[in-house]
Specification:
Elements: H1 3-7, H2 39-49, E1 52-62, H3 71-80, H4 85-88, H5 94-104, E2 109-121, E3 127-133, H6 148-153, E4 181-186, E5 196-201, E6 204-209, E7 213-215, H7 222-231
Helix pairs in contact: 2-7
Amino acid sequence: MKWAALLSAAFVGLGLSPALPSAACTPAPGWPFKVQLDPATMARTLVAAATSVDVVVAEDMTDDYEVGTDPQVYAAARAALATAPATADMTRTPQSFSALLREEWRDDGARVHYRVAEHLKGSGAETFALNGARMDLAPLKRVSKPQPLMALKFRLESRDLSEWEGFGSCITALYSQVGKRYLVFRDADGRLLRQPVDVLFMGKTTPVGGPVYAEVFGPDDPWLIAVRQAAR
């Protein structure tokens, strides 16, 4: 899996190219290092939209993960590829489409199993799983000592792999490591929350998918503190 596909956020407002067959996702210059975040405002937005907010521990990873299985994702991808004969057969059925995307994630994909360490909002099941990736902050390996709020920028547009469109899709996979703690926002169906937040980039305030999945860097993590305050 190419590093750029994990790095960036998907919206035209940043000057990114739309997803095209075989096209790589290319973030706008300076993304996400130059993004400016307002943690308190983001926390209030995400907590208000979420049904459950939990601090969890990634306890295991298995190979029964799903990629591109969301019905809406498949429909959108098929429509986008309707004029591309070379790839038409690949998207003839949801099964063939998801199989194609799963091949792209063959080495990195994983079903990540979590144990809830603390409920910040809601009182759902004590265990659950999401479709993520076997990487520990892969895009941040370029940064020698990433700070929590810097790391949070690399969690914008976090998306479960079941919702990955492929073909240059600009989303952030749930790259994870067993034993690490994560702060997770989910909706009423137990799925990873889809909720935009405002960020400042290139002098403009723009909505992007919020950091609904992020590693917790200890009890003094500023993002965890902001979410705790918003959840009170």
